[in-house]
């Protein structure tokens, strides 16, 4: 139930007065000719005398974010998508009817103004209003009298208010858009084709994750929101589209944290006739290109830590990383018992039936990953943890795969793709067996994908990059919720 406090009641009375005056408080089209940033850029250095001698007529619109009334006159700041500009309204200029309208305005209202530019005694560029139009009446006051919305939960839940009162939030999402544009330009420059694949899938695949389930009434069939577009993108490689990418929304039925949201954005791209080593070089180029575009440098600070994206980046196995960053004695991770002992010493909780590969992975995630600040490619993943990756020619128990870690979190996952249909069938069967034992994140059998591989997929390398995490890095944001406009939250408590 929405609260209806005294301040809202006062505004509703003003709404009634506006109706009584014959003014529609929710106007229609307004032709905006000038924006705040453009006016500041164009006339920011123009002197007071020049503006008096050569009147500059303007027509602007925006939300009132500050209002100071002095009886027969008022100053206000209006905010549009580009920024803020001051306006000055006075009775002599407006006339009686519009002066009455001025006195019914509140912070939060959208207005349109026509007038000319001048400078105040404090030299602030200002619009003196000759014509005033109310475009939308705000019934709910902005929080804390425009001192900012600081409660984190409220900021995420009421993002529309957050965007009004915290300008840096707007900047974050403008930067997000620029990052995505830079990535598109980079990949298209290398001959990649942007494609779209299904978001509702009969068989979810391409990742180890628990899917969301929905139901199609007309077909009377359960469908899954995709956990990854991988298997469809690789079908396109089979079809002869040799370089493809998708900036996609994925859905995983998992927990919520500063690193995870159940709905998130990924970049996935696939490159025929390449392997995971090629993608290491490409990834260095992509991140360096993006950082240079966004920050003008490959060196910057993230949450107080110095980050240096200058290539080349170190490449080490998961075990080597645990030895270096978590202090594991060399060789202690080679057998199940010693690995479990190391996990116990380091307070890493383990289930009883975990294999050595899964124990080492748990150790890495709990003791090592968060300590890696500058980029490191982690390699040498077991087949058991990589059901879609190509086996390593020298050690068939391992796969040709890497994860990229920056600022203590996984930023990318890539591998040489498994294109042997018989091996893939066997691994799907193993995943099905794990699902039958209760592993809800194990992958499904996808017979059509096997059929596609039987037509022949060329040697291929593929990669997924978390766009939300990349934006976090580039905007110095501590939580994934800071870079998603409407993150998933628990139910609002009454």
List the helices and strands and how they pair.
Blueprint: H1 6-20, H2 36-43, H3 48-53, E1 57-69, E2 73-80, E3 83-90, H4 91-94, H5 96-102, E4 110-119, E5 125-136, H6 152-157, H7 159-165, H8 167-189, E6 193-194, E7 200-201, E8 213-216, E9 221-225, H9 230-238, E10 243-251, E11 263-272, H10 276-295, E12 299-302, E13 305-308, E14 315-317, H11 318-326, H12 336-345, H13 356-368, E15 376-382, E16 398-406, E17 409-416, H14 421-436, H15 447-454, E18 460-466, H16 467-475
Parallel strand pairs: 3-5, 6-10, 14-15
Antiparallel strand pairs: 1-2, 1-4, 2-3, 4-5, 7-9, 8-9, 10-11, 11-18, 12-13, 15-16, 16-17, 17-18
Helix pairs in contact: 7-8, 8-10, 8-16, 11-13, 12-13, 14-15
Folded structure, characterized:
The chain has 494 residues and is an alpha+beta fold. It folds into two domains: 6-141, Beta Barrel (OB fold (Dihydrolipoamide Acetyltransferase, E2P)); 165-313 and 374-482, Bira Bifunctional Protein, Domain 2 (BirA Bifunctional Protein, domain 2), CATH 3.30.930.10. 34% of the residues lie in helices and 25% in strands. It contains 16 helices and 18 strands. The chain has an eight-stranded mixed beta sheet with strand order 6-10-11-18-17-16-15-14, with helices on both faces. A hairpin with a 2-residue loop joins β12 (299-302) and β13. α7 packs across α8, α11 (318-326) crosses α13 (356-368) and α12 (336-345) runs parallel beside α13 (356-368). It is elongated.
